[in-house]
Write a structure and sequence with these properties.
about 280 residues, alpha/beta, TIM Barrel, six-stranded parallel sheet, two-stranded antiparallel sheet, 12 helices, about 40% helix, about 15% strand, binds iron/sulfur cluster
Length: about 280
Protein backbone atom coordinates (compact mmCIF):
# COMPACT_ATOMS: atom_id res chain seq x y z
CA UNK A 1 0.00 0.00 0.00
CA UNK A 2 1.28 3.44 -0.91
CA UNK A 3 0.10 6.98 -0.39
CA UNK A 4 0.59 9.27 -3.30
CA UNK A 5 0.76 12.98 -3.97
CA UNK A 6 1.17 13.68 -7.67
CA UNK A 7 1.46 17.42 -7.04
CA UNK A 8 4.36 17.04 -4.66
CA UNK A 9 5.92 14.09 -6.46
CA UNK A 10 5.79 11.92 -3.35
CA UNK A 11 5.12 8.21 -3.07
CA UNK A 12 5.26 6.85 0.49
CA UNK A 13 5.16 3.22 1.57
CA UNK A 14 2.41 2.61 4.10
CA UNK A 15 3.13 -0.08 6.71
CA UNK A 16 0.43 -2.74 7.27
CA UNK A 17 -0.84 -1.23 10.54
CA UNK A 18 -1.43 2.14 8.94
CA UNK A 19 -3.17 0.38 6.08
CA UNK A 20 -5.45 -1.31 8.64
CA UNK A 21 -6.31 2.10 10.08
CA UNK A 22 -7.15 3.49 6.63
CA UNK A 23 -9.40 0.49 6.00
CA UNK A 24 -11.16 1.07 9.34
CA UNK A 25 -11.82 4.65 8.35
CA UNK A 26 -13.15 3.52 4.99
CA UNK A 27 -15.60 1.31 6.92
CA UNK A 28 -16.87 4.30 8.90
CA UNK A 29 -14.79 4.03 12.09
CA UNK A 30 -13.95 7.45 13.56
CA UNK A 31 -10.18 6.96 13.76
CA UNK A 32 -9.71 10.36 15.38
CA UNK A 33 -11.65 9.13 18.39
CA UNK A 34 -9.03 7.21 20.44
CA UNK A 35 -11.60 5.11 22.29
CA UNK A 36 -13.28 3.97 19.12
CA UNK A 37 -9.99 3.33 17.28
CA UNK A 38 -8.49 1.32 20.13
CA UNK A 39 -11.40 -1.15 20.09
CA UNK A 40 -9.74 -2.61 16.98
CA UNK A 41 -6.12 -2.46 18.16
CA UNK A 42 -3.87 -5.34 19.16
CA UNK A 43 -1.08 -2.96 20.04
CA UNK A 44 -2.59 0.28 21.31
CA UNK A 45 0.59 2.38 21.26
CA UNK A 46 1.35 1.43 17.67
CA UNK A 47 -2.20 2.18 16.55
CA UNK A 48 -2.04 5.68 18.01
CA UNK A 49 1.45 6.14 16.54
CA UNK A 50 0.40 5.16 13.02
CA UNK A 51 -2.89 7.10 13.23
CA UNK A 52 -0.88 10.22 14.13
CA UNK A 53 1.58 9.53 11.34
CA UNK A 54 -1.29 9.19 8.86
CA UNK A 55 -2.67 12.54 10.06
CA UNK A 56 0.74 14.10 9.45
CA UNK A 57 0.97 12.70 5.93
CA UNK A 58 -2.48 14.05 5.16
CA UNK A 59 -1.59 17.43 6.64
CA UNK A 60 1.35 17.77 4.24
CA UNK A 61 -0.83 16.78 1.29
CA UNK A 62 0.10 13.12 0.87
CA UNK A 63 -3.43 11.90 1.17
CA UNK A 64 -4.39 10.37 -2.10
CA UNK A 65 -4.73 6.65 -1.45
CA UNK A 66 -4.89 5.93 -5.14
CA UNK A 67 -2.48 3.06 -5.52
CA UNK A 68 -4.38 0.43 -3.54
CA UNK A 69 -7.77 1.45 -4.85
CA UNK A 70 -6.86 2.10 -8.45
CA UNK A 71 -4.13 -0.28 -9.37
CA UNK A 72 -2.68 -2.36 -6.58
CA UNK A 73 1.02 -2.33 -5.84
CA UNK A 74 1.83 -5.21 -8.18
CA UNK A 75 0.52 -3.27 -11.19
CA UNK A 76 2.21 0.04 -10.37
CA UNK A 77 3.19 1.31 -13.79
CA UNK A 78 6.75 2.22 -14.67
CA UNK A 79 5.58 5.50 -16.17
CA UNK A 80 4.09 6.56 -12.81
CA UNK A 81 7.29 5.69 -10.95
CA UNK A 82 9.24 7.58 -13.60
CA UNK A 83 6.93 10.58 -13.32
CA UNK A 84 7.17 10.69 -9.52
CA UNK A 85 10.92 10.19 -9.54
CA UNK A 86 11.71 13.00 -11.93
CA UNK A 87 9.11 15.37 -10.43
CA UNK A 88 10.54 15.00 -6.94
CA UNK A 89 11.38 18.44 -5.48
CA UNK A 90 14.57 17.04 -3.93
CA UNK A 91 17.57 15.05 -5.00
CA UNK A 92 20.34 14.09 -2.57
CA UNK A 93 23.67 12.73 -3.75
CA UNK A 94 25.66 10.43 -1.50
CA UNK A 95 28.77 12.08 -2.90
CA UNK A 96 31.14 9.76 -1.11
CA UNK A 97 30.93 6.82 1.25
CA UNK A 98 34.19 7.92 2.90
CA UNK A 99 34.37 9.87 6.12
CA UNK A 100 37.27 11.41 8.00
CA UNK A 101 35.49 10.80 11.31
CA UNK A 102 34.44 7.71 13.25
CA UNK A 103 31.51 8.79 15.42
CA UNK A 104 30.84 6.04 17.92
CA UNK A 105 27.17 5.62 17.03
CA UNK A 106 27.62 5.78 13.25
CA UNK A 107 27.90 2.90 10.80
CA UNK A 108 31.48 4.17 10.33
CA UNK A 109 32.19 3.68 14.04
CA UNK A 110 33.51 0.71 16.02
CA UNK A 111 30.11 -0.85 16.63
CA UNK A 112 29.60 -1.83 13.00
CA UNK A 113 31.37 -4.31 10.76
CA UNK A 114 34.12 -2.60 8.76
CA UNK A 115 33.59 -4.69 5.65
CA UNK A 116 30.17 -3.07 5.10
CA UNK A 117 31.84 0.25 4.33
CA UNK A 118 33.38 1.08 0.98
CA UNK A 119 35.08 4.15 -0.41
CA UNK A 120 32.86 4.60 -3.42
CA UNK A 121 32.48 8.14 -4.74
CA UNK A 122 30.18 9.80 -7.22
CA UNK A 123 31.87 11.51 -10.13
CA UNK A 124 30.83 15.06 -10.96
CA UNK A 125 29.79 13.89 -14.44
CA UNK A 126 27.32 11.42 -12.88
CA UNK A 127 25.75 14.11 -10.71
CA UNK A 128 25.60 16.61 -13.57
CA UNK A 129 23.86 14.06 -15.82
CA UNK A 130 21.29 13.28 -13.10
CA UNK A 131 20.52 16.95 -12.46
CA UNK A 132 20.07 17.61 -16.18
CA UNK A 133 17.50 14.83 -16.26
CA UNK A 134 15.71 16.24 -13.21
CA UNK A 135 15.45 19.80 -14.52
CA UNK A 136 14.30 18.86 -18.00
CA UNK A 137 10.93 20.59 -18.49
CA UNK A 138 10.69 21.48 -14.79
CA UNK A 139 9.02 24.68 -13.61
CA UNK A 140 9.22 24.21 -9.82
CA UNK A 141 12.46 24.52 -7.88
CA UNK A 142 14.79 21.52 -7.48
CA UNK A 143 16.67 21.24 -4.22
CA UNK A 144 20.01 19.48 -4.73
CA UNK A 145 21.68 18.08 -1.61
CA UNK A 146 25.20 16.73 -1.04
CA UNK A 147 25.55 14.08 1.62
CA UNK A 148 28.06 11.44 2.69
CA UNK A 149 30.09 10.00 4.41
CA UNK A 150 31.60 13.45 4.58
CA UNK A 151 30.76 15.23 1.31
CA UNK A 152 33.53 17.82 1.70
CA UNK A 153 36.03 15.04 1.04
CA UNK A 154 34.71 15.46 -2.52
CA UNK A 155 34.68 19.27 -2.51
CA UNK A 156 36.21 19.48 -5.99
CA UNK A 157 33.44 17.34 -7.47
CA UNK A 158 30.80 19.46 -5.71
CA UNK A 159 32.37 22.63 -7.11
CA UNK A 160 32.29 21.20 -10.63
CA UNK A 161 28.61 20.34 -10.28
CA UNK A 162 27.63 23.74 -8.88
CA UNK A 163 29.64 25.63 -11.48
CA UNK A 164 27.87 23.71 -14.23
CA UNK A 165 24.44 25.05 -13.20
CA UNK A 166 25.05 28.74 -12.62
CA UNK A 167 22.21 29.85 -14.88
CA UNK A 168 19.74 27.58 -13.08
CA UNK A 169 21.02 28.74 -9.69
CA UNK A 170 20.60 32.42 -10.68
CA UNK A 171 17.07 31.88 -11.96
CA UNK A 172 16.07 30.09 -8.74
CA UNK A 173 15.47 26.76 -10.48
CA UNK A 174 18.15 25.03 -8.38
CA UNK A 175 18.86 25.46 -4.67
CA UNK A 176 21.91 23.82 -3.09
CA UNK A 177 22.10 22.04 0.28
CA UNK A 178 24.80 20.15 2.12
CA UNK A 179 25.07 18.11 5.31
CA UNK A 180 28.57 18.19 6.76
CA UNK A 181 30.55 17.43 9.90
CA UNK A 182 32.29 20.83 9.39
CA UNK A 183 35.80 19.55 10.14
CA UNK A 184 36.88 20.47 6.57
CA UNK A 185 34.96 23.74 6.52
CA UNK A 186 37.85 26.12 5.81
CA UNK A 187 37.52 29.68 4.50
CA UNK A 188 37.57 28.62 0.85
CA UNK A 189 34.68 26.22 1.43
CA UNK A 190 32.76 28.76 3.53
CA UNK A 191 33.13 31.44 0.83
CA UNK A 192 31.92 28.97 -1.78
CA UNK A 193 28.81 28.19 0.30
CA UNK A 194 28.14 31.89 0.81
CA UNK A 195 28.62 32.71 -2.88
CA UNK A 196 26.18 30.01 -3.95
CA UNK A 197 23.68 30.56 -1.12
CA UNK A 198 23.88 26.99 0.17
CA UNK A 199 21.68 25.71 2.99
CA UNK A 200 24.22 24.16 5.35
CA UNK A 201 23.31 21.53 7.93
CA UNK A 202 26.13 20.88 10.42
CA UNK A 203 26.23 17.86 12.72
CA UNK A 204 27.06 18.79 16.31
CA UNK A 205 25.77 17.09 19.45
CA UNK A 206 26.17 19.98 21.91
CA UNK A 207 29.14 21.22 23.93
CA UNK A 208 32.45 19.35 24.20
CA UNK A 209 31.05 16.83 26.68
CA UNK A 210 27.84 16.22 24.72
CA UNK A 211 29.81 15.96 21.47
CA UNK A 212 32.30 13.39 22.81
CA UNK A 213 31.16 10.55 20.52
CA UNK A 214 32.07 12.60 17.46
CA UNK A 215 35.74 11.77 16.92
CA UNK A 216 38.30 11.62 14.12
CA UNK A 217 39.54 8.32 12.71
CA UNK A 218 42.42 8.36 15.21
CA UNK A 219 40.07 8.96 18.14
CA UNK A 220 40.81 12.68 18.63
CA UNK A 221 37.90 14.91 19.57
CA UNK A 222 36.48 17.11 16.79
CA UNK A 223 34.63 19.67 18.90
CA UNK A 224 37.27 22.43 18.96
CA UNK A 225 37.90 22.22 15.20
CA UNK A 226 34.19 22.36 14.40
CA UNK A 227 33.59 25.33 16.68
CA UNK A 228 36.58 27.13 15.17
CA UNK A 229 35.39 26.49 11.61
CA UNK A 230 31.82 27.58 12.18
CA UNK A 231 33.10 30.67 14.02
CA UNK A 232 35.17 31.57 10.94
CA UNK A 233 32.17 31.15 8.68
CA UNK A 234 30.05 33.34 10.93
CA UNK A 235 32.73 36.05 10.87
CA UNK A 236 32.88 35.92 7.07
CA UNK A 237 29.14 36.56 6.72
CA UNK A 238 26.97 36.85 9.85
CA UNK A 239 23.73 37.19 7.85
CA UNK A 240 24.44 34.07 5.82
CA UNK A 241 25.22 32.22 9.05
CA UNK A 242 21.95 33.25 10.63
CA UNK A 243 19.79 32.53 7.59
CA UNK A 244 21.42 29.49 5.98
CA UNK A 245 23.22 27.45 8.65
CA UNK A 246 21.42 24.92 10.85
CA UNK A 247 22.61 22.26 13.27
CA UNK A 248 21.65 18.65 13.64
CA UNK A 249 22.20 16.57 16.79
CA UNK A 250 22.00 12.89 17.52
CA UNK A 251 20.53 12.27 20.96
CA UNK A 252 22.37 9.68 23.07
CA UNK A 253 23.44 8.98 26.64
CA UNK A 254 25.96 11.84 26.76
CA UNK A 255 23.50 14.58 25.79
CA UNK A 256 19.83 15.53 25.85
CA UNK A 257 17.70 18.46 24.73
CA UNK A 258 17.81 19.71 28.33
CA UNK A 259 21.61 19.47 28.47
CA UNK A 260 21.87 21.25 25.15
CA UNK A 261 19.62 24.05 26.35
CA UNK A 262 21.81 24.61 29.41
CA UNK A 263 25.22 23.97 27.79
CA UNK A 264 27.86 26.52 26.92
CA UNK A 265 27.37 25.85 23.20
CA UNK A 266 23.97 27.48 23.49
CA UNK A 267 25.70 30.79 24.03
CA UNK A 268 27.04 30.50 20.50
CA UNK A 269 23.42 30.96 19.34
CA UNK A 270 23.47 28.09 16.87
CA UNK A 271 20.23 27.28 15.12
CA UNK A 272 19.07 23.73 15.65
CA UNK A 273 16.77 22.41 13.02
CA UNK A 274 16.46 18.79 14.04
CA UNK A 275 17.12 16.73 17.09
CA UNK A 276 17.16 13.07 16.09
S1 LIG B 1 30.68 12.52 10.53
FE1 LIG B 1 28.74 11.59 9.95
S2 LIG B 1 29.26 9.96 8.47
FE2 LIG B 1 31.17 10.56 9.52
S3 LIG B 1 31.38 9.10 11.19
FE3 LIG B 1 30.30 10.90 12.02
S4 LIG B 1 28.10 10.47 11.80
FE4 LIG B 1 29.25 9.02 10.50
Amino acid sequence: MYLLSRDRGILIYIPPLMDEIILLRNKGVDINNDNELLKYANNQDLYIYYRNKLRYYEKIGVSYPGIREEQGVSTLEASLVDYLFYHSPNIVFEVTESCNMRCKYCVYGDLYKKEDRTNRQLRSSQMIAAIKQFIRGRSGQLSVGFYGGEPLLSFNAIKEVVNQFQREESSGLIKWRITTNATLLNDEVARFFIRHNFSVLISLDGDAECNAYRVYKDGRQTFNDVIYNIGRMRTLDPDFFQNNVRFNSVLHNKNSVKKYMTSSVRNLKLYHQYLN
